[in-house]
Each structure stands twice: as structure tokens, then as C-alpha cells.
Amino acid sequence: MKYGYCFLGVVPVRKEPKSTSEQVTQLLFGDFVETIETCDGWTKIRNTADGYEGFVDSRNLLPIARKRKNNYFTTNMFSYIQMDRELLPVPFGVKLIGKDFTIGEHHFQVPHTNFSKTLDFTKENIRDIVLPFLNVPYLWGGKSSMGIDCSGFTQIVYSCFGIDLPRDASEQVKMGKEIPSVFAAKEGDLCFFSNEDGRISHVGIFLEKQYIIHASGRVRIDLIDNNGITDHSTREYTHWLQHIRRIFD
Fold first, then answer.
1. CA distances (Å), 26 to each of 9, 43, 54, 87, 149, in order?
2. Catalytic residue among 6, 150, 160, 191
């Protein structure tokens, strides 16, 4: 099995091997991937954290013999990592093997970036992670503090607590245990919502006092009850609640 290492801050993963193809997700700096096949400058990859597949520009990966352990993640919404003599811009939550490490022929250092080990799942830590994302714009397939979608947001947040969620809301809903109502929900529970066809199409993170933080147009905080999400400005329902799942007891 061959592996690749994402050495750029944010790399689009596309549905087909061409730059005009739809972005289905993203790789962030520090992600390890399995390389499935390579053709005409594109590599079909499988993210080792969530199993998601797609195509990336082969120039955005470093070949590596084996997957290594990431021990830290960055906590600045935007920062830099030094590769050899170059500076790489990176978003929040990128994974780091250490403060000083080597991949292949390249040496990486983290000179002026705040980073942390895996956090405990507490109310204070949850808020410290989610609130800086407020007003980050919605981006289909996005997973970064420059643009993010609903399940990318929950995936990045939970990765800070050592949990690799699946990429899509329809798969994340299978994690954890069911919570019967918002009145039994705790801060950090995942709330899932359906579209007109009844399929799970949206996810957000429950906050205390029946609020939810989620990516819809932008990362925002709205009200939630057992029916769904109410836009705090229009007082109209925008999403219909189907499930609440608790990953951490």
C-alpha cells in the first residue's frame, strides 16, 4: 500500500481527475492518504481518517512509506508552518506530527503557531473550538476556517477531541447513541436534519439553552427545538430535526 502526505494548507479533492470538476471534500495539511492510482498528473486517494475518496493534483502530495501519528493540531484560525525555507499558510485544525519533523526530504517546523494535543470533551473546550468559526462562509466540500460545509465543520471540531467522524452527515448520524429530545441534549451533541425526501442532509452542534451552531450560508448560531432550527432573525424554521446523537458520554 502506498501513502501520500498533504503538505499544503488546503487541497481540494475533486469528483473527477480535472481541475474543473466538483470539489467533494478537502485535505488539510498533515492528512495522510492511501494512493489508489495515478494518471495524467492526478492521484485518486482515500483519506485514512474518514475513508473518503476523490482525486487530487499529484503535485500537492508527498509520497511517504507509511502513515505516522499526528500528535498535535493547530489552534490559530490562520497561521504558517515552515517547510525547508518556505512558509506554508495553514488554517485551524491542521494535524502535526510534532513541532519539528521530517517527511521524505523535507523538514517542517512550527515556529510561531499555537498548537495543542487532543482535548478533553468539556463545555469550555467545545466553546473554545466552535466559537472562532462564527461567520466563516459556507463552502460545499469545505473543511477549513476559510470556507466550510456543515459536516466538514462537525468533522473538524470532533477531530480536536480525538474522534474521526465520517465525512458526510448521512454517515455521521450512525455514530454514537440516540438522544430522545433537545431537552435531554448536552452541549456538543450532534443534531441531524432531513431534506424534503427524508434523507439526512444537514448537521450541527448543540449548545446549551436550546441553541445550535451550524454551517448554513455561514457558520452561525440559531435556536433549536424538537421540530428543528429557527432562524434567529426571521423566526422561521429552516431545517427539520430528525436525530440527536451523543458521541461522548
1. 10, 14, 9, 20, 11
2. 150
